[in-house]
Amino acid sequence: MTGFVRRSARKPLALAMWSGVLLLLVLGLASCAKPPEAEMAMAQTAIDQAKQSEAAEYAAAELRAAEDSLAAATSEIDRQSAKFALFRSYKVAKAKALAAEAAGKVAADAAVKNKEIARQESEANLAAVQQAIADVRALMDSPEGKRLMRAKEARQAIEQIKTEIDATEASLEQIRQTHAQEKYKMAARMGADAKAKIANLTTEVQNAIDKMTGGTK
Q1: Angle, CA 165 vertex, CA 164 and CA 168 arms, to 5°
Q2: Torsion of the alpha carbons at 188, 190, 192 and 196, rounded to the nearest 10
Q3: Whether residue 4 has pLDDT greater than 50
Q4: Nearest one of 122, 138, 98 to 179, comparing CA atoms
């Protein structure tokens, strides 16, 4: 009888011990499920650095991908935080935050690379426009060009072409200033427009000369 009483007394004690262990396990699991705050901060830093590298101008697609990944991580954190603590898991959110950080670094690198490409393109376009202006002026100063300018039927058109050449040449200063301000993408676009303009004017002059001379010099 005494042995039965002792065994009966042990049961509540053992149950209490196991309940305590289970409670500690639950609390431990819950405490492990924490939002990836460090990873989110690193992702935001990477994106901020990409913006400082002018990714919005020179790597817009890459920057957007990084921001989308960070937004997805935030959304996943909110989704998990709405759950009961025991059922939360931030593994997916952490992965998305790490992906956002990596994408931010890609955007920063792409911005630096693309800005340098735009700088080279801007310089090349500016040099090409200057050379094209020199070439079309040489064409107009050639014997055929001078003969064309003396022709009454072409005089008005040639004067208009000269005016447009002068205006294009004057615009080069604005392109240089834009380039000096490191707005290379804009400067490259302006240079490309000027280059196309001079190319069209050169074609007009050459066509007029060919028409006047019958295609022979």
Answers
A1: 85
A2: -170
A3: no
A4: 122
